[in-house]
Amino acid sequence: MTEAETREYESFMRGLKRRNPHQPEFQQAVGEVVASVLPWYLAHEDYRRAQILERVTEPDRIISFRVTWETDSGEIRANRAWRVQFNHALGPYKGGLRFHPTVNESILKFLGFEQIFKNSLTGLPMGGAKGGSNFNPKGKSDREVMRFCQSLMIELSRHIGEDVDVPAGDIGVGGREVSYLFGQYMRLENRWSGVLTGKGLSYGGSAVRTEATGWGCVYFCEEMLRHHGDSLAGKRVAVSGSGNVALYAAQKLIEVGATVVSLSDSRGFRHFPDGLDLDHWSAIRELKEVRRGSLAEDVGGGIYHPGAKPWGIACDLAMPCATQNELDLDDAITLADQGIVAVCEGANMPVNHEAAELLRSRGILHAPGKASNAGGVAVSGLEQSQNAMRLSWSREEVDRRLRQIIIDIHARCVAEGSGEGPKVDYLKGSNLAGFKKVAGAMLAYGAV
Ligand code: NDP
Question: How far is the CA of 428 from the centre of ligand 1 (A)?
């Protein structure tokens, strides 16, 4: 940025921080997008006059409500829940629900904000939203989770609809939760509609939705490496997380000939020096998806490291697939010092700002989540299309479309992020490509 642009950036961020105090994750996400788009924005007076940047960083609305539910032993509990409907310039609001004790307004605003540009990048007609609750599903029985979901939906149902807002899963919200939420919505509305995505296959879900985020992340990584004359075959990949995104990223990595050297969860990581194989992958999938256990339990071989992150092990590539800010400056230095070629984000904003700067300064390819994990929402968009047409496509058809959407997203990043160095700046490319489309629509709508 020039000096004048830096002054504008600082002035904009001062205002944003004043308007959104105590929301570090939201401020971080906005800061990253604004840094990428500001030079373009400042050169377009019509966008400035329309205050697009001020407006796109303010959610359309935030709905906050209490969710009261009953434990198996008859005790009453109350949690807080939100839906952040951030921007619907490009289509109905779309974005997941997260159930985790750390959920708060800052985290949901950061996720909703990122979702606007991710959804724009997919080329599908979807706005950006996010929601969730500080409810912790861990240690709860199925019936407790069901009662919580049903109570939450009583309020949420007033604010969503297939042409209004279509939630999906995220951390702590998988097939079980989506099904309870969907069943309750149907009961309340007395009609079947594609109001949630990530549904079971026999009741309106799409083939490949479960796998889509992880597979899509690997497809993006393949495109990125191919564009730079490299490939995934034979690469050792350190993966974090062992939830939906991490598991299916690991599965696809093994399929394309890479070696998965780690998986992790909130309590530690498991190191597979010789690589994870598909038999052990299946055992871990069963452990995490069905039994909801911990990686401390040895079902997949490897060596367990409690309380640690996997970024210190020998690898060629890192794929953080657990949560935001899980890879910091020290981790980035460790990874860079051992000569990794790329970091490809499966989670949302897993690489913090300082770590991202370090990767850039060391010439390491860095795929930001809004581009590399967009496969999940892309297949959710395809699920909406199938529901609207009362059709369901085969696995092959959905996978083919997913792959093409990822190839197109990669091309959009390259178009906007090439030029300043020998490597593509994917951060800048994804932010600019996602932003321009939303900004153009907002400008066309006038003062709304
Ligand atoms: P899951 O709930 O299925 O899995 C989350 C994984 O991350 C679990 O292994 C969990 O460990 C681990 N984890 C959670 N919090 C922490 C923490 N603070 N430190 C270390 N590990 C942690 O979620 P998803 O796989 O769906 O989501 C993972 C990430 O991907 C999130 O950032 C999400 O926003 C993003 N994402 C998800 C999409 C999807 O389609 N599901 C789409 C696009 C992005 P444990 O098992 O111990 O809880």
Answer: 25
